[in-house]
Amino acid sequence: MPLIATDYIPPFLFKNRHFNTIYSSLFRRIKPIQFKRKRIETKDDDFLDIDFIENGSKKIVILCHGLEGSSNSKYIQATAKLLSINDYSVAAMNYRFCSGEINRQLITYHSGKTDDLHAVINYVIPNYDAVYLVGFSLGGNLILKYNGDGLFPLSSKIKASVAISVPVDLKGSSISLQRNENTLYNWRFLRTLSKKMYLKHRQFPKELDIKPLKMIKNLTDFDEYFTSKINGFKNAQDYYFKASSKQFLPNISKPTLLINAMDDPFLSQSCFPVNESKNNLNFHLMIPKYGGHVGFISKGDFYWSENQILKFIDRY
Fold this sequence. Notes:
Largest sheet: 8 strands, mixed
Strand order of the largest sheet: 1-2-4-3-5-6-7-8
CATH architecture of the largest domain: 3-Layer(aba) Sandwich
CATH topology of the largest domain: Rossmann fold
Oligomer: single chain
CATH class of the largest domain: Alpha Beta
């Protein structure tokens, strides 16, 4: 599918990619949604906490948050609200150790952990006629990989997917994140991830060595010593290679939209899969000039990207 033209022109201040990226998490006001939480038990004796909006609709959207996000993330809350008032039920995932409670197993979550997404899909499918997948950043990589990697059969009830601000090439993105301009983002992620590793060490003192935390300077280091090791990968590069969704985009067989802004500070040039979109009629790609990372701020109650999500899934 050729590139889809975009009409996103942000207010002047938000043409700065860092302002567009940071503004929502610091200043956006959203009335908290009254989710109904349900706990799903996993095959490996762990659990996933899923927050639902059940409004009687037979259509449901599964929302997948980004790195160190949760159902409390403002982009999840806003998207859930927009979808629910437009006749969609919502299931907002909280990955392992992201719901406010430490998970039982040593493994937590990562960009390619599609088995947990599959568990949630199987949980909701019996009660709905149509299922849609929407992911942001890490969550976007998760749903793109799920759609194309062939590890699990795709239910005929899955109608369409939308992914926002996705590092489809994890190695390329990891290099981009090491730029000096991204120091603040690295610090914020490492602060919460490191706290989780200390708690995991208390839970599994023999299995998890936290000495490397003293040497970690960026997310690549963290993935080298922790994400990869506790999730069964050899090292960070092995993790990036196996978990990146870009290699699976040609296999996507359901209508899927990816929106990546040209000015996203998290993304490398390899995260703009133009050729893949041209060679797969099911894979739609939008590359706005502006937007930052999960930004796309615009006037009104809902941001431009959130309206694009609704517009795309409404077609299916």
